[in-house]
Write a structure and sequence with these properties.
The complex is a heterodimer of chains A (about 290) and B (about 325).
Chain A: H1 2-12, E1 14-21, H2 29-42, E2 47-51, H3 59-63, E3 71-73, E4 76-78, E5 80-81, E6 88-92, H4 108-121, E7 127-133, H5 140-150, E8 156-161, H6 165-181, E9 185-196, E10 203-204, H7 211-219, E11 223-229, H8 231-238, H9 261-266, H10 270-289
Parallel strand pairs in A: 1-7, 1-8, 2-6, 2-7, 8-9, 9-11
Antiparallel strand pairs in A: 3-4, 5-6, 9-10
Chain B: H1 34-39, H2 48-54, E1 58-65, H3 73-85, E2 92-96, H4 104-107, E3 116-118, E4 121-123, E5 125-128, E6 131-135, H5 151-164, H6 168-171, E7 173-179, H7 186-195, E8 202-207, H8 211-226, E9 231-236, E10 241-242, E11 249-250, H9 259-267, E12 271-274, H10 279-287, H11 291-294, H12 299-316
Parallel strand pairs in B: 1-7, 1-8, 2-6, 2-7, 8-9, 9-12
Antiparallel strand pairs in B: 3-4, 5-6, 10-11
Helix pairs in contact in B: 2-5, 5-7
Classes of the chains: A alpha/beta (about 290), B alpha/beta (about 325).
């Protein structure tokens, strides 16, 4: 139990712990986690992002932190900060790999141990939010995270889905997982809901639409919002220099420069949608804490 | 025992985690893994020869892999299976080893079917006379039930799929396709280990063009190389999107680092083809029909056919 109480000490300085889940892969768990973190950080919150997708860590690239190192201090592992004000901290196995091609070929027990170490050893300091990005599925990583956090009452889970039926059936499994392990469901985000053609402004539903909202209603989960595909956001998460405001429709235009990824994100259309999603999420969290 | 099984960071006199003395030798004292090594079954897996026997008459075993989720592994597996099975003399089997998120039953239009047990083993679900499917999706009490299993239980299930499924015509199959979950973990290790003796023809790796996906795919390629799985090639999915109203082409997932093409050149892997993003692919999957049959004229269907032909060519060589 000793190491569990260490986790408790770490979490004592964190106000809210939120897991981002989805049964399906590639629906945008990591990009939603990043966007939630950027929205919260831009509102002055202190946010930590913990990436427990050990076999496919995407958060470092998305936050522009590839190749950065974790430092070991007496207080624990110091996370990597994405901005100068140190409002957005990040921890991922990506920082621990020798090079970008190395695979992490681990079975369950080893993954569990790593997650435990992340929870017990990372020195987050005072945080308003700890967002935990997960791999797809309902297996070792999820059970480990829930098991280690359970005693300290994590706030709950945000579910991410795309609208098509094939994704929804996996996401239903994830919702059942949350119910079974007693993790409160904070809400559902429908991602990749439509794509606006840059040539003719016609919105095409690549993966249909409305499926997420219908599912939320059906499963009685708060619906947090619908986010379309925004090529500028895809670009922002892709490009190495996060201080350049992407403009994929007019690549020849003069590039705007900002201070950090937090500011760059505010130039993306999607930031408004995520600001609304974030404020809904925050008000739910405040209610549940009272 | 081969020394290669000894972890790099093991104690100095580690006997190897699979040896008789694992967890019990003098060198094991103080090793954090001692307890796990000591409690594990020793020696080779007694089920391995049974799996090998069962699959001895399968001509080609193909793995469909990707480090990244949602890039179209299941969609591709299903379309590949449909296309191969359009030749009536070709017997095709599909095993869905994505235990926590089985999509194959839905994509192949055989949801809510049942597995039957006979004296010869489990009978798979037949989508066509020459196309059989096995998935955990057929065994769940209802479609929403979550499979909350840790590694060992998933491995047990995969082993049963390989050992107990009674493929038609005395186990003779031309193709056995494995649809996998994302990542490089239990499921992947298990299937590779279990198939080692009977031989894997190769792996087809799926990716989307953006660097965030390619990153994970690099890891999968590294896994294949470490595990000695031959890589048949890489398929780039969701490459470009053609607007149905103005036919303007746009890139949704930007290939900021050159896409699959650059990765293939960097890592010396054949690029099997590039499939554009077409909303009707997703729709075909939702309805469980063969996309190549429903929209044969679309550019995406033509790209699918090209890729599938190349795969056939490579495996028949």
């Amino acid at each position: 139990m000793t190491s569990n109480s260490v986790i408790g000490d770490r979490l004592a300085s964190i106000k809210h712990v939120v897991l981002v889940l989805s049964g399906k892969g590639g629906v945008g768990k990591s990009s939603c986690t990043v966007q939630l973190a950027l929205s919260l950080a831009s509102q002055g919150r202190k946010v930590g992002v913990l990436d427990i997708d050990l076999c496919g860590p995407s958060i470092p690239r998305m936050l522009g932190l590839e190749g950065r190192q974790i430092h070991q201090a007496t207080a624990g592992w110091v996370p990597v900060f994405a901005d100068a004000d140190k409002r957005l901290a990040c921890m991922s196995i990506g920082f621990l790999l020798p090079n970008k091609n190395s695979s992490v070929v681990w079975r369950g027990p080893k993954k569990n141990a790593m997650i435990k170490q992340f929870l017990a050893d990372v020195y987050w300091g005072e945080l308003d939010y700890l967002l935990i990005d997960t791999p797809p599925g309902t297996s070792d990583e999820h059970l480990a995270a829930v098991e280690y956090l359970q005693e300290w009452n994590p706030d709950g889970a945000v579910i991410v889905t795309t609208p098509q039926a094939v994704a929804l059936s996996d996401v239903k499994k994830e919702i059942n997982f949350c119910t079974k392990v007693g993790l409160p469901l904070l809400g559902l985000i429908e991602n990749m809901s439509g794509f606006v053609c840059p040539h003719c402004a016609e919105c095409t539903n690549l993966f249909s639409t409305g499926g997420g909202e219908g599912l939320a209603k059906h499963m009685d989960i708060p619906f947090l919002g619908r986010a379309p595909i925004d090529p500028n956001l895809v670009m922002l998460l892709e490009q190495e220099d996060k201080t350049i405001v992407p403009n994929v429709n007019d690549p020849t235009a003069e590039k705007l420069k900002t201070e950090s990824i937090v500011d760059t994100y505010q130039h993306c259309e999607l930031s408004k949608i995520f600001a609304a999603i974030t404020s809904q999420l925050e008000s739910r969290l405040d209610k549940s804490k009272q | 025992m081969p020394d290669s099984n000894i972890p790099e960071n093991a104690n100095e006199h580690c006997p190897g985690p699979e040896s008789q003395g694992a967890g019990k030798a003098d060198g094991c004292a103080g090793c954090p893994n001692q307890e796990i090594c000591a409690s594990q079954a020793q020696g080779p897996d007694p089920d391995l020869p049974i799996v090998t026997e069962r699959l001895s008459k399968v001509r080609h075993k193909l793995l469909v892999l990707s480090g990244k989720g949602g890039v179209g592994k299941s969609t591709f597996t299903a379309q590949l299976a449909f296309a191969l099975a359009s030749d009536e003399s070709c017997d095709v089997g599909v095993v869905d080893i994505d235990i926590c998120g089985p999509s194959i039953p839905k994509i192949m239009g055989c949801e809510r079917e049942q597995i039957h047990q006979s004296s010869n083993g489990w009978s798979p679900v037949y989508v066509q006379d020459n196309l059989a499917v096995m998935s955990i999706g057929f065994m769940l009490p209802d479609e929403d039930s979550a499979v909350i299993w840790r590694g060992p239980k998933k491995n047990g299930m995969i082993k049963q799929f390989l050992k107990d499924v009674d493929w038609s015509s005395a186990g003779k199959l031309d193709y056995l396709l494995f649809d996998t979950p994302p990542g490089t973990s239990d499921e992947h290790l298990s299937v590779v280990q279990l198939l080692k003796a009977s031989g894997i023809t190769g792996a087809v790796i799926l990716t989307t063009p953006q660097e965030v996906a390619l990153q994970d795919v690099r890891k999968e390629i590294d896994f294949c190389r470490k595990a000695n799985v031959p890589i048949l090639g890489l398929v780039e999915n969701m490459a470009a999107f053609v607007c149905p109203s103005c036919h303007g082409s746009s890139l949704i997932f930007y290939p900021t680092t050159g896409g699959a093409d650059a990765l293939c050149r960097e890592l010396d892997i054949p690029l099997l083809g590039s499939i554009p993003l077409d909303p009707s692919i997703g729709r075909a999957c939702d309805f469980g029909s063969s996309f190549v049959d429903t929209c044969p004229e679309s550019p995406a269907a033509k790209a699918f056919v090209q890729v599938i032909d190349r795969i056939k060519q490579i495996v028949d060589q």
